[in-house]
Amino acid sequence: xxxxxxxxxxxxxxxxxxxxxxxxxxxxxxxxxxxxxxxxxxxxxxxxxxxxxxxxxxxxxxxxxxxxxxxxxxxxxxxxxxxxxxxxxxxxxxxxxxxxxxxxxxxxxxxxxxxxxxxxxxxxxxxxxxxxxxxxxxxxxxxxxxxxxxxxxxxxxxxxxxxxxxxxxxxxxxxxxxxxxxxxxxxxxxxxxxxxxxxxxxxxxxxxxxxxxxxxxxxxxxxxxxxxxxxxxxxxxxxxxxxxxxxxxxxxxxxxxxxxxxxxxxxxxxxxxxxxxxxxxxxxxxxxxxxxxxxxxxxxxxxxxxxxxxxxxxxxxxxxxxxxxxxxxxxxxxxxxxxxxxxxxxxxxxxxxxxxxxxxxxxxxxxxxxxxxx
Length: 374
Ligand SMILES: [Zn+2]
Description:
The protein is α/β, with parallel strands linked by helices. It has helices spanning 3-12, 14-33, 48-59, 76-83, 110-117, 139-143, 148-154, 163-167, 182-194, 227-232, 245-260, 262-268, 270-286, 294-306, 313-328, 336-346, 363-370, and strands spanning 66-70, 89-93, 123-127, 130-132, 145-146, 159-160, 171-175, 196-201, 204-209, 213-218, 235-239.
């Protein structure tokens, strides 16, 4: 090869490189266009307690969230993401960025207050959604951003809503919730305390409704959750790998089937999904008719005293969860079984531990308390 040819070669080199780039770009475009096919929640094998905790919150958002603890590969994220497909519909004010509740005029955002004044409120039904809060999200992205210069001139127009706005009246999902930055945890705690998100910059403050269901998942091997946040989340479930051989085989088979033919797999579970949706809707309609008896409340109080919990939040959470569980099971009354199921999810992270003492939650002790043998 002579030197003259080198120049020629150099000129030719960019061509295949460019071609390669185009191909890569094309792949990128296709990748972003392809909607990820979701694994249906009713196709999950086992993990009943986790699924129940998620579903009960979907029926009754006032329960106050779920923390799912467990190792990787135990279907935690699959379950939470799959929940989106079976969530009931809610009524929202059309076009509102904060999903304002037409029935709750006291919590309207400023835009809806304005619309109401002008008689322009329109209502629509939309399914509840699962809103992701990624662990690395910036503060502006989470709470919203405020352009100070613009705020002085144009007022609230200068506010760009964040994830907490989108999550109002929906499910806020935080995978690896134990790895959240402190400023996000503080924002979540503030919002959870007041059901309002407030952004303050240089003396200017904007608030909007932020009443969401926190669903967190975490691998405890990677660190614990801040106690204040732990206390705010009503239910906790531990998920473990399944040891039943037949169930494990079933998991492999279903995963392979889903990977080979996702749409076909989804079709196979369509009727299960419909059944689950109908059951949730029925429970949502029934819950208002169910109330705890004095005896139910005594049982709950007795449990909380026996398990040495802090404060009274646990009692309230057990009552709400038990009532919702009764509705889900199609019962008109709360049974001791409902209370036991609820307590199993509310108590484990709320027992006051004495120094140097590893007090473990025991389901047997719980049954003994409820049945009056303790
Ligand atoms: Zn609004």
